[in-house]
Specification:
Length: 590
């Protein structure tokens, strides 16, 4: 049934900005997908589309996918319990087999972003571990708006040097950007899930949409910075960060308006003088909202995710996939980071450079952005994160490993657990203070009327109108000591994005007795255009996503402990979604 809704939506929905498979955009180096790939891809799609909603084994592809469904493909839905019961040993995400690199794809267009050394002899087990140098001085990362003239000219000449390297040099600007493309657009399948190129039940290696996001990007920008340092002959070379969590830092840093840090494919509003808007989603394209409003709402967004994440690391960092799973659940920092990609990227279709993960790292602001994501993670780790659990006890996360080409011209292997101490990695941030601790969040006025009702048992479409759900809280009027032991979470489950594109919906919470507005901002679901399409491969169920937003503090702020239910309002911003359910959990803190 969901697929019937989907097909009619695909036929009628107005197209949000996207790098759609029909687009005529084709970077110079892209080439058309070979026919066999095309046929295979179509076959996978058609089969899942015709197999209906109930997985009755009618389709040969569903049979083919059983291994996936049992081992890891079916993260969401009914197989979830099975996976956990069977999980006896850790199965961390492993590095890919370099020689099995495919061009990344966006559905129709192929992006050849395999590294130049992809087809060498190295098998994953032959790749040596990276030896972290013993750093005597720390590379000090500073805000982009604070660079001295000398530091700015160093930065420019480092990037110029990288840009002047030949296209097949692993250190070149293009190859460095391709690393990001390769690990988010399906260039590699996971070892053990990589039988034949393009086989339907292969599982791509994906560094977004899970707790892998933060450590992979930490390593990525670490090597980027170290390589620039080598090119400059300066071991202390550090990249700046764009501190958009600070009211003065929210302005687009002017250094990126200048060659060679400028990228002409940004939205026109992504220029000095304008402030990044974390409430943005294409409808404010090139018409920035009033600065004060933007700053107020941005600060609120930071406060929300840090405070709610303080009680439960998974909410902030994301859920950990195990080998055989393409993704899990994105943490709130990753989702916030997606908004910045949307805001900087061009707002008309097709989205590319910052607006599309295939090309995002071709824009130098990508690194200013990710230096700040890295810093926000460090702020969280040092000032907000509670002290036990997750990071110390989850081998699937700690032992997950990746491959990079290092600052000594070697292919090396690194692990998540070696990325947790930034001092060991030889860098520090100029400033880790926060500006949002005591801000007040504005309430959200009603944008369009919508009835409040229970979700019901069928899949619902979130498109033009908000959906307002009366969601029952497992317990209410609890004792203070019981409240302290739990974390309250609103779950939006089984989200299927109808287009492969940049999307967004927002979530607000209020008590049932309030009928004047939508209530308080709890968070957003945000996706950035990227390669292979969610919901369009063989195991469609596995492509469904979940959103989990902490509301423990929010419930306290609303004085809502006595409320038996809350009203959860989903406000569509860009894109069309199918949603299987919305509910509230109260989980014990581990
Ligand atoms: Cu891999 Cu900002 O994305």
């Amino acid at each position: 049934m969901a697929s019937a809704i989907m097909s009619s939506l695909l036929a009628t929905a107005s197209s949000p900005p996207s790098l759609s498979s029909k687009t005529s955009y084709s970077p110079q180096n892209a080439r058309r997908r070979p026919t066999t790939f095309h046929r295979q891809w179509k076959l996978c799609n058609l089969s899942i589309r015709s197999s209906g909603d109930n997985s009755t084994d009618e389709s040969p592809l569903i049979k083919l996918d059983r291994r996936n469904m049992l081992i890891g493909g079916g993260l969401y839905g009914t197989t979830l319990g099975l996976i956990h019961d069977q999980k006896a040993v850790a199965k961390p995400i492993a590095p890919p087999n370099l020689s099995k690199c495919n061009s990344s794809s966006d559905g129709d267009v192929l992006y050849p972003c395999c590294p130049p050394y992809a087809f060498g002899v190295l098998k994953p087990e032959e790749i040596p571990d990276y030896q972290i140098p013993s750093f005597t001085t720390l590379r000090k990362r500073k805000p982009a708006r604070d660079l001295s003239d000398g530091e700015l000219s160093n930065l420019k000449s480092a990037i110029s040097k990288m840009k002047s390297l030949g296209g097949t040099d692993p250190w070149s600007f293009v190859q460095q950007a391709n690393i990001h493309c390769a690990f988010c657009n399906g260039a590699y399948n996971q070892v053990g899930f990589d039988k034949v190129p393009f086989e339907c039940n292969n599982v791509p290696l994906q560094v977004h949409n899970s707790s892998i996001f933060l450590p992979w990007h930490r390593w990525y920008i670490y090597f980027y910075e170290r390589i620039l340092g080598k090119l400059m002959g300066d071991e202390s070379f550090a990249l700046p960060y764009w501190d958009y969590d600070h009211p003065d830092g929210m302005e687009f840093p002017k250094i990126y308006d200048e060659t060679p840090l400028l990228d002409k494919t940004r939205a026109e509003h992504a220029r000095a003088g304008n402030y990044v808007d974390l409430h943005y989603s294409f409808e404010y394209c090139n018409t920035p909202r009033p600065k004060d409003k933007v700053i107020e709402e941005n600060l609120c967004y930071f406060r929300r995710i840090f405070n709610e994440g303080a009680k439960d690391r998974t909410l902030f960092i994301g859920k950990t996939p195990e080998a055989g799973q393409e993704s899990a659940v994105a943490g709130s920092l990753e989702i916030l980071h997606n908004v910045v990609h949307q805001w900087v990227g061009k707002c008309e279709s097709p989205n590319f450079d910052m607006g599309n993960f295939i090309t995002a790292a071709r824009d130098p602001i990508f690194f200013g952005h990710h230096m700040n994501v890295d810093r926000l993670w460090e702020i969280y780790r040092t000032q907000f994160m509670s002290t036990t659990g997750f990071e110390t006890d989850n081998p699937d996360w700690l032992d997950a490993s990746f491959i990079f080409y290092d600052e000594n011209n070697k292919v090396v292997k690194v692990q998540v657990k070696d990325a947790l101490d930034i001092t060991k990695l030889g860098y520090s941030f100029a400033d880790l203070s926060v500006e949002w601790k005591n801000v007040l969040c504005p309430r959200q006025p009603k944008t369009k009327e919508a009835p409040v009702a229970e979700f019901g048992s069928t899949t619902r479409v979130l498109a033009e109108y908000p959906i307002r759900i009366l969601a029952k809280r497992p317990k209410s009027s609890r004792r203070e000591s019981d409240i302290e032991k739990t974390v309250e979470v609103v779950v939006v489950d089984g989200i299927e994005v109808v287009h492969t594109s940049s999307t967004r919906f927002d979530v607000y919470i209020s008590t049932p007795d309030n009928s004047t507005d939508f209530g308080d901002f709890a968070g957003s679901f945000v996706t950035v255009a990227h390669g292979h399409e969610h919901g369009k491969t063989a195991d469609s169920k596995a492509k469904k996503q979940s959103l989990k937003l902490g509301i423990t503090n929010l419930v306290a702020e609303l004085n809502a402990e006595t409320a038996e239910s809350l009203v959860v309002t989903l406000v569509p911003r860009t894109g069309v979604f199918l949603i299987d359910g919305v509910y509230i959990e109260q989980n014990n803190i581990k």
